[in-house]
């Protein structure tokens, strides 16, 4: 086997992903599936390593696989406007998630404060909030 050729295992290891990820990306059309060589193995090359690293990095930055597919298809073109639009949308999504996570942290901090102030024999306010934040009796809720 030439030194520039990779088996699926070597490709996955080199790119820092699992073999199943390679196969999944192939099914999604994000990575080509090379023909089998005479030895029965599929042989990948450095361009496949670069593609896998691109996919992995894009996901680490919050891009969905649909976004990655769009970016992959746009990478062959010079449509910077569309790439920028996809990236701007991802930034908005991440900022919304960050705002939501911050609100969750504030709510949890409030529960911790309530818990610290409650007497040891009282019901735990954290558990009470998780069980049911609606304070009406169950019979009234069902009615």
TrEMBL record:
Keyword tRNA processing: no
The species this protein was found in: Aquabacterium commune
Domain HTH merR-type, residue spans: 5-74
Gene Ontology molecular function: DNA binding; DNA-binding transcription factor activity
Signal peptide residues on this chain, from the entry's feature table: none
InterPro entries listed in its UniProt record: DNA-bd_dom_put_sf, MerR-type_HTH_dom, MerR_fam
Upper classification of the organism: Bacteria, Pseudomonadati, Pseudomonadota, Betaproteobacteria, Burkholderiales
Record keywords, A-Z: DNA-binding, Repressor, Transcription, Transcription regulation
Protein name: MerR family mercuric resistance operon transcriptional regulator
């Amino acid at each position: 086997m030439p030194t520039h050729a990779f088996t699926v295992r070597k490709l996955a290891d080199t790119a820092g992903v699992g073999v199943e990820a390679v196969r999944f990306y192939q099914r999604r059309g994000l990575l080509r599936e090379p023909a089998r060589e005479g030895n029965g193995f599929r042989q990948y090359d450095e361009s496949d390593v670069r593609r896998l690293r691109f996919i992995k990095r894009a996901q680490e930055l919050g891009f969905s696989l649909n976004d990655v597919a769009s970016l992959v298809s746009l990478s062959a073109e010079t449509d910077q406007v569309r790439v920028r639009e996809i990236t701007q949308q991802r930034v908005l999504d991440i900022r919304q998630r960050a705002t939501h996570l911050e609100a969750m942290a504030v709510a949890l901090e409030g529960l911790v404060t309530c818990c610290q102030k409650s007497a040891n024999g009282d019901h735990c306010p954290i558990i009470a909030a998780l069980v049911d934040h609606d304070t009406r009796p169950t019979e009234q809720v069902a009615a």
